[in-house]
Each structure stands twice: as C-alpha cells, then as structure tokens.
Amino acid sequence: MAHNSTYEARIEAAIDDLESQDVPKYRPTANKYNINHTTLRRRYLGIQLSRATANSEFRQRLTIAQEDVLIKHINDFTDRGLPPTVQIVKNLAEEILHDTVGKNWVSDFVRRKKDRIRSLYLRNIDSLRIKADYAPIFKQFYDQV
C-alpha cells in the first residue's frame, strides 16, 4: 500500500512538472520521477484514472465524493453527541446512492475509512463482533469456574 501511495505521489508530481512545461515531454519526465511514461501520458491527458478513482468508480458502491459526504454526516452526528448506528449509516448511504447496499457494506466502509471517521461506536463494530463470537466460550469458562 505504501508503494502505491508513493507511486501516486510521484505521478502527481510528474503531472505538475508536465503542466509547467511549454511542450510536455513525457518520457524524460517519467524517467525523472521513475514512473511508466505511458501511464504518465495517459493520466496527464485524462485517458486513465488513478487507481483510487478507478476503484471508487468501478468497485465501490459510492464515489469518492459521495463517501466524503457520508463521512461528513457521520462526523456531524458524532460531534452532536449522537454517534450513528450501523442502520443509520446504511440508511444515509442508501439515500445518497438511491439504491440498497449489502449487509456487510457498512462494516467494510468503516474499516476502509476508519482514519477519517470520528465515531468510536462504528470503529468498534469489529471488536464488538469478535467479543460476541467469543461470548459462548466466556460463558462456558465462567460456568465451570
């Protein structure tokens, strides 16, 4: 993952460099930033999307902009002292999308965006799920003790 973000940063720097040139020189600029010249040319011309944008548009249910709106709503609820439940987040996402999302969509979304979501309740979904999975084991232990 760090490799991809570093590569993306180099591509962005190379695109900035190309924009400052009178006539874009793709191969020398790509060599300077140690990136593929074809990728650089395609990205500069708007033919090819970044990996994050492509994933947003083709793999994820919401676009990056829609995810930003959803994160803002979640954080606004949290800032008001009303951290949203999983069902509220699901309803918000479906309202933004005008379609339904899958049963695991919220937990996947929270896992991907945990660094931007301020709601401790949502970030603890996975730990609560793990605790629930171990509940029968704990009960058996305490019954025996």
- The shape, in one word, is elongated
Kindly state the number of beta strands: 0
Described by strand count, sense and barrel closure, the largest sheet is: none
Instruction: Tell me the number of structural domains.
Output: 2
SSE pattern: HHHHHHHHH
Category from helices, strands and their pairing: mainly alpha
Rg of Cα set: 22 Å
**Alpha carbon gap, first and last residue:** 46 Å
Fold topology:
Layout: H1 2-20, H2 26-33, H3 37-45, H4 51-58, H5 64-79, H6 86-97, H7 105-112, H8 120-123, H9 125-144
Helix pairs in contact: 1-2, 2-3, 5-6
Question: What would your notes on this structure say?
Answer:
It is a single chain. With 145 residues, the protein is an all-alpha fold. The chain folds into two domains: 2-48; 59-127. 72% of the residues lie in helices and 0% in strands. It contains nine helices and no strands. The chain has helices spanning 2-20, 26-33, 37-45, 51-58, 64-79, 86-97, 105-112, 120-123, 125-144. The radius of gyration is 22 Å and the shape is elongated. 12% of the residues are buried.
